[in-house]
Every structure is written in C-alpha cells, then in structure tokens.
Fold each of these.
Amino acid sequence: MSAAERGEADALSSDLVSRLTAAARTHGFAALGIAPATAAPRAGKRLRDWLAAGCHGEMLWMATTADRRASPAALWPEVRSVIMMGVDYAPPLDPLRLAERGDRGAISVYALGGDYHDTVKRRLKALARWLVAASPAPLKVFVDTAPVMEKPLAEAAGLGWQGKHTNLVSRDHGSWLFLGAIYTTLALTPTAPGRDTCGSCDACQRACPTNAFPAPYRLDARRCISYLTIEHAGPIPVEFRVGIGNRIYGCDDCLSVCPWNKFAAAAHDMAFAPRAELVAPRLADLLALDDSAFRAVFAGSPVKRVGRDRFVRNVCVAAGNSADPALLAALAPLLDDSAAVVRGAAAWAWRRLGGVARSGDADPLVAAEWTAALV
C-alpha cells in the first residue's frame, strides 16, 4: 500500500470511528474506545500468574478458559480491532448508606435494577448492526460471560485504567462502567490508551473489610466479599463472616471510596434504576424466602443467578452480624432447612444472636456451627 493509499485508508477509518462513536451514544453507551487486537500483551501472563497462585478460588472456568482469554486472537484469530464500550451506572444512592443498618441487607448497586447482561448485550447487538451496515465485515459481541479480558482491553482502548482495586477507573465515570466489547475484522484507528493516575492513593485497599488485596493492583478473590457472596457455593469461611457485615450480594466498598467518583454524575439510565424493594430490604423478610418467592422477588435481577439457598445463606450471615435478637424468630425455621448451607449459616447466626444450642443435635453441620459462632 502506497503512502497515499494508506493515508486515504486512515482517513476513512477515522471517519468511521467518529460516526461509530456518535451512534454508540444514541444506543446508550457513555464511552467508546478502540484498541488493536494485539493490545494488552501482558494480560495473559498476569492472568496465568494469578491462577497459579489460586486467587480464583472456585471459579474454575477462569482456568479452563485461560488460553482463550489471554488475547483477542486466541479467542477469534480473525479479529483485528477491539471496540470497547462502557455504560454508565453511577448510583443515585450512596452505596455505603446501609453500613450501620444492621436489620437491612446491602446489595451491590449494580444489582439493584435490571440485569446489565441483557441490557448491554441488546445495545451492543444494535450497534453491531449499525456497524455492519456502515462497513460490512465479520464481528462478534461480548458481555462479561465470554472469555474476554474486558478491563485490560478497556484500558488499552482509552476508557480508563485498571485501578489498585483491579477494576476500571474512568476520569469521567469513576468506577461505575459496565463494559462490553465488539471484536471486528476491520482495521480501525485506535484511540489513545488510558493512563494510570491512582498515584499514591490507597483508599480502595484500606476500605476492604476482608483484606482481599495482598498488594496494589492484585485481588485475592478468595477473600473478596463479592466472590464469597456470589461465586462461592459452600459455607462462607468463618474468618470472613464478621467482615461481611450486612452485605448480602456483592460489595461496593473499594469502588465507592475511589476519589475519581467525585467526577461521576449519577446515571439516569432507567434500565438500571434501583427497584424500591431492593434499596433497603429487611433481613427478616429475606430470611423467609422459599425458592418460589426468591424467584418472584428477583425476576430480571442479577441476584437470581446465585439461587435461593446461596442467597439465604448470605442473609443468615448478615443476620448473625446484626446484633438484633428479634431476628431469632426468622432464623429458627432455617435451622432445619433442606439446604445444608442454609442450616449451617442459620445456626451460626442463631448462636451469635444469643440463641440456645439444641442439645444432642443430630445434624453435625449445625452442631459444628454452634461452636464456630463462639470463636
């Protein structure tokens, strides 16, 4: 290709990117950037080191998909450019507003409204159709569930940088962006990559209630409240239960304290508007949920993916941290729940709130939790 031809191609690519960016905003995206498929070359090694240290816990799919996750080309060899997009979900409510409300459960702000997977993917597909019409070429869309390194690619595309809490930080949107990706065979003009401006700040490291950051920019998921309340299937390790407090699905502490959030205006996207019944739910009401009631309450919510048993386990832990003996009445039926993980958490909470251990309990899990609660 001659210099003149290359210049013409670059001009056409820049024009397409400009029109793509405008189209993205009409489809509800607050940020867009482009990285070459070869961007973030060190991400694969960092992932393998993280996996080798066992920091992924029970998230076995992280290991089984590591090779495909390591680079865009490993997942799709034909890809030439990665279009990264962000949807703003900056909360209208203080994420830490329930920290001292022991009788209430705190749900991560991203899960207070509709499931972002559905909304972001629908918008990505609409934008992908626009792109194919504007410049026909093969492409693929991804939202969170595919083996894609969204955060390193978003940094490479200029949407922000991976902060010391390992999440993306944006100058304009703070820590509150849902990410989506379009892989395309088009050679698009890349945007400038993000630049780390965390500086000496360590607010996110100090905010973690369970000390999940062994070092800046490194997360041990096995100690993370989001992992423990969402991904971890069994009993929550006793050493982390008090630190969990009243967090019953996810945790926003490290995100919430980031100073860059002061530049993030509250999002007004109705797709993620907090549902009134989830803003400050009563633990007593949540402890009473059976499977059908759980499905009804959390229909269309990200919370539904953990299932009733894991969720009620989390609520029991929050009840045990509440210092509210009035919750004993709601816990009593759960001591004989059909799910072992619920029985164990209920027994721990029961004893924490001053409930009397049942002598000669035939359930060894429950009997063990009587003792654990006193440690």
Amino acid sequence: MNPHAAPTNLPEPSVVPVQGMHCGHYFYRWNRATLHSLGPVSAGMRSDFAQAIQAADVTKPERLQSFIVSGHKADFAFIAMDPNPLTIDGVHQRIMASKLGAAIEPVYSFVSMSEISEYLPDKEQYAQKLIRTGEDPASPTFLAKVASYEKRLPMMFAQRLAPEFPNWPAMCFYPMNKARNVGANWFLEPFSARTEMMAEHAQSGMAFAGRVTQLVTASVGLDDWEWGVTLWARNPQFLKEIVYTMRYDQASARYGQFGQFYTGYLSQPEAILQHCRI
C-alpha cells in the first residue's frame, strides 16, 4: 500500500454539506441619524426592504423567519437554513443593498450547521439503555420498544438535519461552549459520562414538549463558539422556565459556557418596520 496515495471515494468539492444544512442567525439595528438623512420613507423603500427578506424565487432559503428583537442589542433579525451558505448570506446582502440599507447596521451574526448529535443513541445503544434500567431483553415489551425506537430514528435524524421552523411567537438564541477548565473539562470526560449527562439534559427538555422546541446547530470550526441554541416557545414565559430548569443539569451547571442571549418575536418585514417606527 502506497502511504502517499491520494484518498479514494472523496466527495466532489462543494459548499453544500455532505449531511445537513447551513444555518445563519443575523441581527441588525437601525441607525436613526442615517435614517433621518434619507428623508421620508416611501412605500417603495418599505416594499424593497420586505422583498429583501422575503424573496419568493430561488434566492430564498429553504427555511427563513424574521423577528422583532427585544432590547437594545438589536432591532430585528432573521434566521435561515439552506444547503447553500451563500443563499443564506444572500438575504443579508439584499438587506444591506436595499433602499433602506444605508440606515441598517449589522450587530451580530452566527454561522453554523445542523448535525446529528453523537449523543443520540442508535438502536443498539437504546437497547442497552433499556437493559440497564431493568428491562428484560427477552420480553415482548422490550422488543416492541426497540422496534418502535428504530422506526422513529429516521424522523429524529431528519428533524436534526433539516428541521422545520415552528410558527410560534417567541424565540431566543444564544451561543455556547463546553468548559475546558481544570477539573471540569468536558472534552476529557469519558464518552459514557458525557452521554449520561446529555441524557439527563434531554430529559429536562422533554418536560417542555409542546411548549418549547429546540434547534442546536454546530459552529465548531465555523464561528467563535462551538454550538448555537435556538429555542421557540408558545409563550415567552416558557423560554425563561426551560433555560432556568436546564441550568441545574450537570451538563450546564458544571460544563456550560454561554454567550449573549437574543430574544425575538416572530414578525413579517412589514410588522418590523411598523414596530420600529420606520
């Protein structure tokens, strides 16, 4: 075997992931001084801004939502997912190139990709988990549970790789890392210990099923943080409750490091302009 031989069966060079989708979070604020210098905002300027976000042709990402952002970190934002990262960034470029673009200041962005977590058990791992909890591997109940889990796996994979955005009113986003502190280094813990802690974390989140849904995207090698967490809720109170609850889990309490939180409310571009008094 030639150690210098080129690898075989490599994918073709492409910006499209072999698995999953690109994800972008973009946040903006209005420069009021520049806005006033533009003179009266016309219907054409407002329409141009709306079309920049809501392109209806092939330039629109497969997943796209826009938000009014609460607080002074930003005024509005959009979240998008698409196999092509330039399709996502194209929304940002259209916003900045719009007739109101001179008065828009980008304040934060987060670039990441969807993934299947290494802590999501496969069929065999799920079966071993059932056995550890006392299930008899020869029982009909055990076999039925394993078969049911195996049937759900493709749906679970799809939900992580190409999730639908829920049409729920409240959203928050924050970036996070796992700690590398002396005595609390996530990446030096055995995989079995990390899996157990993430299972506890997931169990806490499942208590909010139907009230909160979560998207975790990976930014390792793509942005300043390792993961981005997006939460959608039927009511903003649930955002507060789930984050508070899950911070007691060891995966967060001992190993979690969090960036700034951005809270937004699902809105169409016209509603963003109206709310921001544009």
